[in-house]
């Protein structure tokens, strides 16, 4: 590494210097306005050249003067990661090992604890534990701050370094120290690492007339798993399903193409999502194809503050087209797209390259999806401060809805009295939530009751569908 570490940088500087010289040579032979533009560009390039020299100077000082010898590769990778993480909360550098782990994860199998995390104030912040993993079983909750790993503070670690420390061989143990909002003292948890093979789609019939599907993430298996779930439940019910509850609560997202396919499963036409990049020619749009895997059944989508990214794409598309009623609490609000760009021999960078927009043209960046019907999970949630969301993260991208006109959503047009039957919060004395007992899941029970009332009041789908 030592003999080659500076060559790529020098080549880049050489290009900058050559371009600067070319710009200066053009000066005497062009019209004055262009001279001004060239001068400004040349000054900018000269400043970039000086800053690259500054980086080289600091790098050499660190190599020569730091109290202990440093590894050149580690120092440069840390500098690259610092540059990317300084842009927004979701851009980062992945070394070769981290990139390989990410590829394994998107295929639906990876090692560790099963937690989707971000970083806040130097600590590791839990976005959501993944269903049926060591983290979920131990009681890790969205919003938890992991402050120590095996007694050592995570302060000073990059997010990737902290994640790597949480990974390890199956059967090995790790001690987490967690600071939880509302808890008076830190919480200590001892977890055993497992090979994480999350069941991305869990499903069951509720009373033989309502199909329930929970998607825990969006990886390469999600769309196929959803299709299998819907097909299986239709057969199990004898084609007597009245509706589908699609549960996206605490689903932290994943692959954009899977979000598009899942939304397309319920739509027969129209836009699903669009992205707008820095350059107009890089913007994209995805449209639905004919075919609805539910047979045009009523759909309720459950969301909460842990529903992020790909989950919000699906919920936003179905809400904008009035294909589903969104029920629950406001989602996380991550409306940006990250592109993974491999660097041959050196891992990859994850770079925010675009914002995404729902079919109506609204960005949910920092805002989230507001449910059509608000239903709280607990009575305490009504008085508690909102859990942190995208807008609370440092350097979060701004929302740009004010730069273009966003039309209001079409009305719900529900049968009279159906929406009013939904209760906003559990009654006094309601049992505490127990994941093994669906009857204690207040939001789910309200969604099921709403679907049945909706179907009873409107047994046939509108002909305009």
From TrEMBL:
Keywords: Hydrolase, Protease, Serine protease. InterPro entries: ClpP/crotonase-like_dom_sf, CtpA/B_N, PDZ, PDZ_6, PDZ_sf, Peptidase_S41A, Tail-specific_protease. CDD domains: cpPDZ_CPP-like, Peptidase_S41_CPP. It comes from the Bacteria. Gene3D superfamilies: 2-enoyl-CoA Hydratase, Chain A, domain 1, 2.30.42.10, 3.30.750.44. PROSITE patterns: PDZ. Residues 99-167 form the PDZ domain. Belongs to the peptidase S41A family. This is S41 family peptidase.
């Amino acid at each position: 590494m030592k003999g080659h570490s500076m060559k790529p940088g020098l080549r880049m500087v050489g290009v900058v210097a050559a371009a600067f010289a070319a710009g200066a040579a053009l000066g005497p032979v062009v019209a004055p306005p262009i001279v001004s533009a060239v001068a400004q560009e040349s000054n900018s390039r000269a400043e970039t050249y000086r800053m690259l020299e500054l980086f080289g100077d600091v790098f050499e000082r660190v190599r020569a003067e730091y109290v202990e010898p440093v590894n050149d590769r580690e120092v440069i990778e840390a500098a690259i990661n610092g540059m990317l993480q300084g842009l927004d909360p979701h851009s980062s550098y992945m070394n070769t090992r981290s990139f390989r782990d990410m590829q394994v994860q998107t295929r639906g199998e990876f090692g560790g604890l099963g937690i989707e995390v971000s970083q806040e104030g130097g600590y590791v912040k839990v976005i959501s534990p993944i269903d049926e993993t060591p983290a979920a079983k131990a009681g890790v909750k969205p919003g938890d701050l992991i402050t120590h790993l095996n007694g050592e503070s995570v302060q000073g670690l990059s997010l990737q370094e902290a994640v790597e420390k949480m990974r390890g061989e199956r059967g090995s143990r790790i001690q987490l120290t967690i600071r939880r909002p509302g808890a008076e003292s830190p919480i200590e948890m001892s977890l055993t690492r497992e090979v994480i093979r999350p069941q991305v789609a869990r499903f069951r019939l509720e009373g033989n007339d309502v199909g329930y599907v929970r998607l825990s993430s969006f990886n390469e298996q999600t769309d196929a798993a959803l299709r299998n779930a819907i097909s299986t439940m239709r057969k199990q019910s004898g084609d007597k399903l009245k509706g589908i509850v699609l549960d996206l609560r605490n689903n932290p997202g994943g692959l954009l193409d899977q979000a598009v396919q899942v939304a397309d499963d319920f739509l027969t036409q129209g836009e699903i999502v669009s992205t707008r990049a820095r350059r107009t020619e890089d913007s994209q749009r995805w449209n639905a194809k004919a075919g609805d895997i539910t047979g045009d059944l009523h759909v309720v989508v459950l969301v909460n503050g842990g529903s992020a990214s790909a989950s919000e794409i699906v919920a936003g598309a179905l809400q904008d087209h009035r294909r589903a009623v969104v029920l629950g609490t406001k989602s996380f609000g991550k409306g940006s797209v990250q592109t993974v760009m491999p660097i041959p021999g050196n891992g990859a960078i994850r770079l925010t390259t675009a914002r995404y927009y729902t079919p109506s043209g609204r960005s949910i960046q920092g805002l989230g999806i507001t449910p059509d019907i608000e239903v709280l999970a607990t009575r305490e949630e009504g008085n508690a401060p909102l859990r942190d969301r995208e807008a609370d993260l440092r350097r979060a991208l701004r929302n740009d809805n004010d730069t273009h006109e966003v039309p209001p959503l079409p009305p719900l047009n529900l049968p009279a009295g159906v929406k009013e039957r939904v209760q906003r919060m559990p009654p006094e004395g309601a049992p505490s939530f127990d994941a093994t007992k669906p009857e204690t899941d207040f939001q789910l029970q309200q969604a099921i009751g709403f679907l049945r009332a909706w179907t009873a009041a409107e047994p046939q789908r509108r002909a305009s569908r």
